[in-house]
Design a protein that fits this description.
Blueprint lengths: L27 E4 L6 E6 L9 E7 L4 E7 L3 E5 L6 E9 L2 E10 L1
Antiparallel strand pairs: 1-2, 2-5, 3-4, 3-6, 6-7
Length: 106
């Protein structure tokens, strides 16, 4: 209270989503975007037995779609069986999420 007036106190919390969208240097590129039948995933991160990299795909409703391991720096992934929509590609290693990419499939 100040001079008999009531004041509301507001606090803002910074919530991070675990993505590197603010980071301008991505180690992974997914293209084309939007995509139809296939996508390319290019990585500047080496994948080895000691450093496993996986990609988990969720649709826009948050439902699990697929998960697979990256074994090469440049792979082609068939996505022709995915229904049209927005998908989230979550790239992670044994330490957690590295990047998240949004991909539109037409």
């Amino acid at each position: 209270k100040m001079n008999g007036s009531k004041f509301l106190e507001y606090a803002f919390v910074d919530i991070t989503s675990g993505t590197n969208e603010i980071n301008t240097k991505n180690n992974f590129i997914i293209f084309p975007n939007p995509a139809t039948n296939t996508i390319q995933i290019r990585s500047s991160v080496s994948s080895s037995v000691n450093h496993r990299i996986s990609i988990t795909i969720f649709n826009s409703m948050g439902s699990f779609t697929e998960e697979f391991q990256i074994r090469n720096h440049d792979i082609t992934k068939n996505i022709s069986h995915y229904p049209s929509g927005l998908y989230f590609f979550i790239i992670k290693d044994e330490n957690g999420i590295l990047e998240t990419h949004r991909v539109i499939i037409e």
